[in-house]
Amino acid sequence: LATTHVDPEGTAFGWSTSDHSDSGYKLLLGWHFKPRLFGELSYADLGEAGLSNSDPAITGNEKISYEIPGVHVGYYFYEPEAGFNIYAKIGVSSIDNEATTSRVDYEKQNSVGVSGGLGLQWRSSSNGLFARLAADFYDRDASSIGFSLGYYFGGSSETRQAAVDLDSDADGVMDSRDSCPDSALGAQVDASGCAIVAVQEPEPVVAEIDSDADGVVDSLDACPDTEKGAQVDAGGCVALVITQINLTLEGVFFATNSAELTAEAQNILDKAVVALKASPVARVEVQAYTDNTGEAEYNQKLSTERAENVRNYLISNGIASERLTARGYGELKPKASNETREGRARNRRVEFKVIE
């Protein structure tokens, strides 16, 4: 239903508009083809404009009626499912007017022109009903302001209700408030619809034991009984031992032309046994030397025998044979002058060299 304004332009043979307001009605059929776009077919009957003649000899009033079919495209400013909305539309309409009597010499109009409208819409959230307050404009001489009721077809009331605010991922948070609308089915979510990330409790750490408190745990400690405060290597053994057994054992003396160990030499080697046991991963080359007394070939053979005797002594005292090699160097690499008795005594020596 609408209040209309119809005002035929100009005058003809004394006839002019005396009443340009009337009531009318409109029929609409529309559809949505985009979320906010819609199309409409319409038929409007704007009623009649009253005419009177300026000639006193012509009495009585006559009327001209307006019928306007049209097609329009419209746009909703908010989501179509919103309870309150504003829309605008534009299209084309055909204006058909007709005088009620032949004595009105008035040109019949049947023209197509641009038309449009603005409106407010209220939509029910529980069913397909909606109401509009609309202003429609067809031409300079034809317009209307009216109220209409309508109904949305195409789905059950439950479907329309769900369209108002969906929960697409079924996580209990409606899409309008869901920051993560694609949560996995069954996932626990927070108030904004995003999955709650479970905080992983750290597994308890069992502290390994370091019985000798040398900084190397027992599972990695090759020397688990190191004295307190001793500096150790990565295997937990006294690091100083490795350095010591790289030195010359000058106390291991041999008599001239002899490969037998003296009692004093055995005492020194006993200390070497302790050092080697404290470093069970070390491999050692036993190197024996002579002075320059005698032939070089003889001295080479003698140094080899001395190296073998030292190796055998260490093996007999618990050092694994695969950890020891023996090599004689004869009179090569003297540590002191062979011109003196003291120098020759120092050159008859044994050295340990760590090879691994």
What is the fold's blueprint, element by element?
Blueprint: E1 2-6, E2 15-19, E3 21-32, E4 37-53, E5 62-76, E6 84-99, E7 110-123, E8 129-139, E9 142-151, H1 157-164, H2 239-244, E10 248-249, H3 263-278, E11 284-288, H4 296-316, E12 324-328, H5 341-347, E13 350-354
Structure write-up:
The chain has three domains: 2-163, Porin (Beta Barrel), CATH 2.40.160; 166-201, no CATH class; 238-354, OmpA-like domain (60s Ribosomal Protein L30, Chain: A). Helices cover 16% and strands 34% of the residues. It has five helices and 13 strands. The strands form two sheets. An eight-stranded antiparallel beta barrel has the order 1-3-4-5-6-7-8-9. The protein has a four-stranded mixed sheet with strand order 10-13-11-12, covered by helices on one side. Helix 4 links the parallel strand 11 and strand 12 (324-328). The model is unreliable at 156-162 (pLDDT under 50).
Q: Which fold name is given in CATH as the topology of the largest domain?
A: Porin
Helical segment count: 5
| CATH class bucket of the largest domain | Mainly Beta
What's the CATH architecture name of the largest domain? Beta Barrel
Q: Strand tally, please?
A: 13
Describe the main β-sheet briefly.
8 strands, antiparallel, barrel
Mean pLDDT: 81
- How far apart are the first and last residues' alpha carbons, in Å? 107 Å
The SSE string, one letter per element, is EEEEEEEEEHHEHEHEHE
Which structural class matches the secondary elements?
alpha+beta
Unreliable stretches: 156-162
Q: What portion of residues belong to β-strands?
A: 25-35%
**Which bin fits the share of residues in helices?**
10-25%
Mind telling me the C-alpha Rg?
58 Å
Strand order of the largest sheet: 1-3-4-5-6-7-8-9
Shape: rod-shaped
What count of domains describes the coordinates?
A: 3
